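Troubleshooting: if your tokenizer reports a length mismatch, compare your output against this known-good record of 221 residues.
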Amino acid sequence: MIDYAFELDNGKKVGFKVQFNRNEWLTEDKALFPEWTRMAFQQCTICPFSATEHFYCPTAVDVKNVVSEFAEISSINEMNVVVRVQDRTIRKRCHAQIGLNSLMGLLMATSACPVLAKLNSLARYHLPFASFNETLYRTVGDYLIKQYLIKAEGGTPDFELIGLEALYRDLGELNRCFLNRIKEVAKLDASLNVIANLSSLSMIMQISISDRLKSFKNDLI
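Known-good structure output:
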């Protein structure tokens, strides 16, 4: 479990505990779920679920409390964020957008969405407030470890990162669709900026993975 605690300058304190293998969207009283979490509401174009069989979007259900708590908070509001990950505690003074970007990315990567589930292994080694280069390094490293294990078990590995580029195309589309979903509830811009940033990151990653990797050459060789 990973614990996020936010303390705003107005004295408001909010905490979120992120657990893995969540099934909340299946077992919680569905009468409590807001309209915008319904599967058919702005459903992602690449969603493999049927809205007739799955009434709610698992990712929307997982982030609904965060979006609700920060719906009226501007992205430039200052706050203190404390993240407890396994045996370490990380503290940062930052804008709401930075803290929420870290939490929302973790929640989405650990949701029951089949597309986002491909990021679950990264989430298990979560790095709060990661920079672009840190995210690139971790993402490619995570993917290559999986390919090594596939090869070790007699499968065909993808060391050309073709599958990773395809994944980030899917993530870009998913985040674009998800932004439309939460526009209905976020009154100011903090939550919207978070999803927009995740979408931009997905697009950058899938367009320039090979070129971006060259920037590590002097550090690794």
